[in-house]
Amino acid sequence: MRKLNIAFIGARGVIGTYSGIETYYEEVGSRLVERGHRVVAYCRNYFTPDVPSHRGVSVRRLPALRSKHLETLSHSILATLDCLPRGFDIVQYHAIGSAPLALIPRLLGGRTVVSVRGLDWQRPKWGFVARNALKLGEWAAVRCPTTAIVVSASLQRHYETAHGKRPHFIPNAVVSGPRRDIDFLTQYGLKGDDFIVFAARISPEKGLHDLLEAWRPLAGRGKKLLVAGGSSYTGGYIEQVKAQAGDDVIFLGKVDRRTMDELYSNCFAYILPSYMEGLSVGLLEAVSYGCCVLTSDIRENLEVVGDAALTFAAGDVEAMGRQLQRLFDEPELAAAQRAKVRRQAERQSDWDDVAERTEALYLELVGASRDGTAGAAP
């Protein structure tokens, strides 16, 4: 099989969890390395430690302008310029805001890919100028690179309808992590099965403000709400939700992988009341652990959970509260939902499958088959 030289551009980096892109860097990157390819992850130097490699993936740290509007773009521009003389077979961009940059390596003879993980312009944190710049990125994602990948069937349908283009569909995957006993969480007086988890970036489209409103009437019922996640240049929103929260809501901030495993392993339920997603890695992880899941019924979330979750309309605080109330009143319902979720997890892709499908696409783009023979380049 032909061995490829691959660059990843767009994420904050490795050795840390911020979003699904960082998970992709590590899970797919390491598997491509195991299959004999070279993968270079372009990382932001404030996020990723100064190490030469991680899980076999070469680490290339570059600076970025630390601002809401310019961080991703500035880093992606530097990474693009840095990668041009390095002879990469594939340059994969992981943010639609950087999609126009995919044209530069392509014009110089390289093969480029843009991964679309959501319609970022829909996020409420963006103003008029940024929103329209991201809409341009959405348009460019299927015009500037050699090809594009989307992580959900819903996104694939959107591109077909809105842009007349059908990108490749390769979903995010279920992460089967280790189950862990209560350890870190004992400092909060928790013993297991006595808390509900919200784990996501703390920004308005994730619906935490709705959850806190639905949670208020349930205070004093013997369970706590744990909020795991960091800012996405949304400091004002974080102050708002912290002011909204009661004493039985605990903000953990950004947590490490081990703590996330502990949260999934011991929670009474996991909840994601989001208004928009690409294909939530956090939701996939909750499914992989067999958590009782409550989630908004947007199409991207239903792709993950099928009929195995308790659902409610995004933004419907009363409906969310009723589903939470059901769980509090009927503990046996949570057990039944966990059994459904475990069956649903068996239907999901794993990272081995994602890496294999991604590799097959790369080889098609460079005109090589798995046995190393030449083919017709697209």
In summary, what is this structure?
38% of the residues lie in helices and 16% in strands. With 378 residues, the protein is an alpha/beta fold. Strand 6 (111-116), helix 4 and strand 7 (147-150) form a beta-alpha-beta unit.
CATH class of the largest domain: Alpha Beta
Separate helix tally: 13
Q: Report the CATH topology name of the largest domain.
A: Rossmann fold
| Outline | globular
Low-confidence segments? 369-378
Word description of this protein:
The protein has 378 residues and is α/β, with parallel strands linked by helices. It has two domains: 5-173 and 349-366, 3-Layer(aba) Sandwich (Rossmann fold); 184-345, Rossmann fold. It is 38% helix and 16% strand. The strands form two sheets. The chain has an eight-stranded mixed sheet, sandwiched between helices. Strands 11-10-9-12-13-14 form a six-stranded parallel sheet, sandwiched between helices. Helix 3 links the parallel strand 5 (90-93) and strand 6. Helix 6 packs across helix 11 and helix 11 crosses helix 12 (331-345). The longest helix is centred in the last third of the chain and has 16 residues, at 351-366. The chain is globular. The model is unreliable at 369-378 (pLDDT under 50).
